[in-house]
Structures are given as structure tokens and as C-alpha cells.
Amino acid sequence: MLKSVGTVAVARDMARISEALGEDGLNFWGYSYGTILGATFAAIKPNLVRRMVLDGVSDSESYFNDLIQWGRDGMQNTNKTLEGFLSTCIEAGPNFCTMAVSPIGTNETQTVATLRRRLESLYSQLAQEPLIVPDSRTAGSGFLKASDVQYLIFSVLYDPTVWRTLGDLLVQVERGNGVNAYNALYNTAITSVSSGE
């Protein structure tokens, strides 16, 4: 069974799907791990590649030689990207990033360091007492936990076009409203969010 699992097996499946659909080749856009998948596909089925974009290329040699180390190496820049989100928020200002506004009841100037402290405080608060989500359009009722918010942040760091929405979601969660963040966890594309107020 293990011969049917993994990157090479998925690349072969992609070729079979393309052929079964009667396509004359594969158009593919891959980023991060997708660049490894795309490169593998191109290596085993070069005649089926029509157009291919490999964006944010991952280290395929490391992936195939030591998967565990590849995973560790891939996480190295996550904190830098989070810092990029936070600094972009500060630079954009309150009109474009709601996190750049001081929390209710404070007049503290917002900086990358203060935003990071706010996130840490939010994680601590949610770890002690998750937010109850009475009803969401995508997943019904449930709880929004610290790990959910961390996953949500991690999942959108790839896409700066939704960072503004991420800022809105985080402020809503800070204010005790987790509905939109909970919806976003179960939605495959975060594009915009209502105020939820």
C-alpha cells in the first residue's frame, strides 16, 4: 500500500487524471510543497507539461533525502513572515488594518512588538477560556481555541492579499466575537469578512 502513497504516486495520479479527462497536458501552479509535486510531475511525465508555475520553490532535494529536516527547515521563515504581516499592518495604519488601532481602553502606540504581545495575550486568553461560537454558517456551533487562531494565522501567511481580513478577524476575536474567525477556519478561501458586530 505504501507504494501508492507519496509525492511520486500523486504525480502519477495527476497524469492519469489529465489523460482520463482527455487533456493534452497539465497546467499547474504550485507553491511551497506544490513546487516539489510540480517538479516531480515534470520529471516523470515531461511530455504532459503544458504550462507550469512553481512559486516559492521548496527544497526538493532536502524533501526526498530527509523529510523531517525538510519540515523543520520549511518553518524557519514562518516567524519572519508573521513579522512581515505585523509590520505591514503598522505601515498600512488604522484605515487599512484594524489591528493598528489601539485596543479599546488603551492609548498605546501600536508597534510590531505591541501587536506581537497582543497576539500572545490573545493566545493565553483563548487557552484558558475558548470563545463559544453559538452558530456559524459553515460549521454550526463550537469553540474557538488558541490553536485555531494560530492555525488561521499560519494558513493565510502565504497570501498577503488577505492580511487585511486577517487583521479584522483578530480584532473581532480580541473583542469576544469568534464567529467570522470560526467560519474562516472551515472555509477554503478567506477573501473578506463582515464586521460581525
UniProtKB/TrEMBL annotation:
Signal peptide as annotated in the record: none
Statement: the UniProt record of this protein carries the keyword Iron-sulfur: no
Single annotated GO MF: hydrolase activity
Keywords, alphabetical: Hydrolase
Keyword Hydrolase in annotation: yes
Gene3D superfamilies: alpha/beta hydrolase
InterPro entries assigned: AB_hydrolase_1, AB_hydrolase_fold
Domain of life: Eukaryota
Pfam families: Abhydrolase_1
Residue ranges annotated for the AB hydrolase-1 domain, each copy included: 6-91
The name this protein goes by in its record: Putative hydrolase Mb2248c
Organism: Thanatephorus cucumeris (strain AG1-IB / isolate 7/3/14) (Lettuce bottom rot fungus)
